[in-house]
Amino acid sequence: MTDFLIVMTTVDSQDAARKLSRSAVEANLAASGQVTGPIETTYRHLGEVCEGTEWQVTFRTTADRRAALEECLVAKHPYDSPEVIALGVDSGRAEYLEWVTRATR
């Protein structure tokens, strides 16, 4: 398992994305949160193919903060069953990764 993660989720509004990003950073669960969007999405829901507009929030965090970050995101998320996925960071500049660690303490 890697020590650093990229965690992503999507929401239905820019305001919701900004709130999730800010709450995670304020709680020291993520060093940063980036909001990207709008993005167009196609998905299956209740057996039907749907389309919509979403905003993606991408967080930088440490592996030991992942569970707490996920808990925070799910509690504040507007969706009943939100996507919260984590990808390991294989490498990065030492100074940057040290900042991620400091910012999540």
Percent of residues in beta strands: 35-45%
Can you count the beta strands? 4
Uncertain stretches: none
| Rg, Cα atoms, Å | 14 Å
Structural class: alpha+beta
What is the global morphology?
A: elongated
Q: Please name the CATH architecture.
A: 2-Layer Sandwich
Order of helices and strands: EHEEHEH
Tally of domains: 1
Helix content: 25-40%
Major β-sheet profile: 4 strands, antiparallel
Average pLDDT, to the nearest integer? 96
- Measured between the Cα atoms of the first and last residue, the distance is 20 Å
Describe what this molecule looks like in 3D.
- The protein has one domain (4-103): Alpha-Beta Plaits (2-Layer Sandwich).
- 32% of the residues lie in helices and 39% in strands.
- It is built from 3 helices and 4 strands, in the order βαββαβα.
- Strands 2-3-1-4 form a 4-stranded antiparallel beta sheet.
- The longest helix has 13 residues, at 14-26.
- The protein is elongated and about 45 Å long.
- The model has no long low-confidence stretch (mean pLDDT 96).
Characteristics:
single chain; 105 residues; alpha+beta; Alpha-Beta Plaits; 3 helices; 4 strands; 32% helix; 39% strand
Short description:
This protein is of the alpha+beta class and 105 residues long. The chain is 32% helix and 39% strand. It has a 4-stranded antiparallel sheet.
